Amino acid sequence: MGALWNHVHKDLIRHRREPLTFFVWLGIPLLIGALFGLLFGSDEGPQPSARLLIVDEDQSVVSGLLIRALSDQNTRGFIRGETVAAAEGRRLIYDGKASALLTLPKGFANAILREEPLTLPLLTNPAERILPRLVEEALGVLVDGHFYLHRLVGEDLRWLAGLHRAPTDAEIAAFSGRLRARIDRVGNSLRPLLIKVEGEPAPAGAPARAESPMLQVFLPGLLFMALLFMAQGLAREYWDEREQRTLHRALVTPGGAWPFLLGKLVTAWLLMLAVAAVCLILATAFYALPSRSILPALIWASLAGAGLMAAFSLLALLMPSARATNMLGMAIVFPLMMIGGSFFPFEAMPAWMAAIGKLTPNGWALVRLKVILAGTQSPLAFAGGLLAMLAVTAGLTVLGTRCLRARFGRD
Amino acid sequence: MIIVDKLSKHYGETRAVDGISFRAEPGRIFGLLGPNGAGKSTALGCISGLLKPTAGHISVMGHDVQTDGPAARATLGVVPQELALYEDLSARENLSYWGGAYGLGGAALRASVAAALERVELADRAKEPVKRYSGGMKRRLNFACGIVHAPKVLLLDEPTVGVDPQSRVRLLELVRDLAASGTCVLYTTHYMEEAEKLCDQLAIVDHGKLIAAGTLGELRALHGERDILRLAGHFEPEAVRRALAGLAGVGEIAADADGITLDLPQASRRLPEIFAALAAAGAEPRETTLTRPSLESLFIKLTGRELRE
User: What angle do CA A271, A388, A399 make, to 5 degrees?
Assistant: First the structure.
């Protein structure tokens, strides 16, 4: 233990002598996080919404009802429906100025009222991923609603469709009465609902702060971006020590390779702990991170960083030169950051890419960090994850030590 | 004590060390001599445990370096040929780190560091970062890092290379002091004069093989009190060989078209007859070098070339 601390102490002094590197590592998540915070964390500015263009070829009361249903007031601003001519609608879609173009063909009202097969053409903007899906989901809900409406008052709707004149007041009153009776009849099945969703009230005295998407989506990725840069940069030290011959001198001390390599790993862990602590404490202050999540998140993030350090150490010890180590390290770090959820959150990736990204070491740890930050991680899952991570880190360290002792330190 | 028995270290077809054996005793300085690339540093690497021997056994203070490495290494102090220092740390921090790596701590470490700094005369600049030191100061600190834990066995790999004369004298004094206090010192060098003045026992290594070993007196006896006479110029080797065959006591070490190397007693007095014989053989000597009996001349006699070639 004394030998290990001796190595750690020396490395920490050396890092203290060169604080700029540490502040660069710390600055990466803070700077990018602040920029994201300014971009997405504020209530100011326009809320992203889908612009849905509707071509109404039917010009019926029913198509008018649907267009009103898709207006701002009914979709809470997520979808902004507006009617356009067909040519104008296509031009706007191809110019990328709208999310989707829905055509309500002739006979739309008849098909709706008679429950006949109907295809609604929906042209989506290929340059957008999320907003067109939002429109598809909303239209899917309306189609489901139409199905259940027919189960309830289908007979009356078909009667209405067969009427080739405006209904009289008496017919409307009779229709309303039948509708009311049907609703009362099924009311016993609908009330009370078997599944009841209740919002958990905030504890008394808790500040009423809105949870920011910044915390949920970007912060864990940015933290892992810093950890990846740190792991890659710190692993370069093996080559520095070899070039200044201190590595060889350390290897002929009684402890040999083990405390030397473990010392580097523990130093990296302490530095990562410091970076993660600053980020998470600031997140608590600015982005409503639950304080109970800080300690487990800190433990998880710093140990994941140490695991990455062990992996990059092994890589450095296997490479033929410092230059090759740098080049390969960068060639690995950037794809890992991109696919592992640091540059682009998994939520914004295509499903297949997110699935691959979650299998990368940083992606795997990142997914779990998000769960920890959300406060929904069970203690058992947390402990299991930690054990798995420590086992992999230990395995990589054993391999690294063998490499250091057998090859790297003897050249 | 260091016991090296039939040590070999091969790198593919290259035999860096080829079956050398020797024994270095406590309280004495054992010199391992040879030109650059002779295998001295490789042998030291094997003894320190850094390199794995291809064959042979090494024991340090009774501990086998291969099977009982940590115990063997705990008795060793190593001063490598290249500087092995953290330039961003101070001398005190470097010494504390290396002392700590050998298990020292607390007051014992502080006392050892202070003593080492005094020994190498760096106490007054102990807090400065090493990057501000001169080359000689760095060399002295490099030496101090190897002795801070008071090792029983000290391995010195050409510690005076690139050292200014004053620092060299000081380092050699330190080595003598350590040996006098009972430390077993293994000293590699290619400076023959240094080895002659410093070492109690010597082994000469060339191309990985040990070609002579013993005390300075024993090695001189092996060579005899004969001078080395080297003549450079234009020679017809066969003709010169026939001409010199008639001169009593003149031995030939090497001969080619560019020069000839002879060994003979009292060479300075016999130069006239040698030049006459060479002139008769049609030789044209342009440069003459006379070397008095020394390790240098012994090395030339044993290998046919100079130590620094």
Answer: 70
